[in-house]
Protein 1
Amino acid sequence: GENVEQHPSTLSVQEGDSAVIKCTYSDSASNYFPWYKQELGKGPQLIIDIRSNVGEKKDQRIAVTLNKTAKHFSLHITETQPEDSAVYFCAATSGSARQLTFGSGTQLTVLP
Amino acid sequence: DVKVTQSSRYLVKRTGEKVFLECVQDMDHENMFWYRQDPGLGLRLIYFSYDVKMKEKGDIPEGYSVSREKKERFSLILESASTNQTSMYLCASSSPTGELFFGEGSRLTVL
């Protein structure tokens, strides 16, 4: 089955700096890669996703890149703000499977 | 907005008790999921369901069962709770595009 590894487990940045979280996956058939943000006391919420026919996708301050050859994908947050502080999860799924496999999560702290 | 509602935010149970965690979604999604969240382990899939009365095992089904009698409702059952089942439990439903919508979670403590 799919195995997703996520790094780092914790990340602290100064407000206004960029943050990068990286994930690798094992199943070369995987074709959908979402990122979820979990704020304290809430369930995870989708913030951006990418499919295997695209190399990069942006949404305002958030971007995701995908390298299918190397089997890794990354989340980039620019101009970080205190409200970006949360736990971020990457995930992957293959076309044959309808369930997501999640990474272990990254606690991002944006310092004012 | 899609809403996934979990019936209990916090539960405290004793070892050996039977535990029911209820989940209801209001967007007519066919797919529903139960995950367990533990620090450093991310979200691990316990069970999922693609249709009423249908269920499939996820990655960690041992010690759990599920019930889907109606499309909008998916229940997680711990037949005999154990201390190693102390955790945060997250229910989700998915849209046709695959996006998961999560509930706010049920934090279970087994004493």
Note: The first strand of chain A starts at residue 4 and ends at 7.
Protein 2
Amino acid sequence: KQEVTQIPAALSVPEGENLVLNCSFTDSAIYNLQWFRQDPGKGLTSLLLIQSSQREQTSGRLNASLDKSSGRSTLYIAASQPGDSATYLCAVRGSYGGATNKLIFGTGTLLAVQP
Amino acid sequence: EAQVTQNPRYLITVTGKKLTVTCSQNMNHEYMSWYRQDPGLGLRQIYYSMNVEVTDKGDVPEGYKVSRKEKRNFPLILESPSPNQTSLYFCASSSSIGLAGLTDTQYFGPGTRLTVL
């Protein structure tokens, strides 16, 4: 059964710092991996999606990498800003059978960027 | 504006009183799903639908029902709510999954906070 873990559960950094959020998964047979952002009281917003054949994706100050064989993904945030404060979640979709119909989420990393 | 809407946003009810949480998307998406989010457990999938009249169980379907009579709507039904169904519920949709080259970007609704007393 696929399990997704995100460490740390919470992170506080000063404004301007570069930071890395980690996501690990137990079953490397994935179709894709997504990173989401969740603001308090709101839904999730998709940030980046990496297909299993890709190594990384970039959007602005965000860069997500995927190492499928080791079961790891990282989300790199450059020059962090207070507006980046949110909970960041990763989710994987399996690549076979019924697992392709489901997204398995990690429990998230709560990020606070201090001005 | 492309969006997923849920209603109500907040609901307090009592054990055993049937309720429905509506979900609607305006993007002509085939795939829709329901999740619940609980502290320490993350988001867990309740039910999903690949298209009209096609639904299937997720990881935590007990106590819930869904229907997909129209492409845009995917209501979540709690026939006899219990306190352990107190949670934050999210509806999501995407254009398709499992097809090479097509995006799987999920669009989430704003959430429904349900309290069952």
Note: The mean pLDDT of chain B is 91.
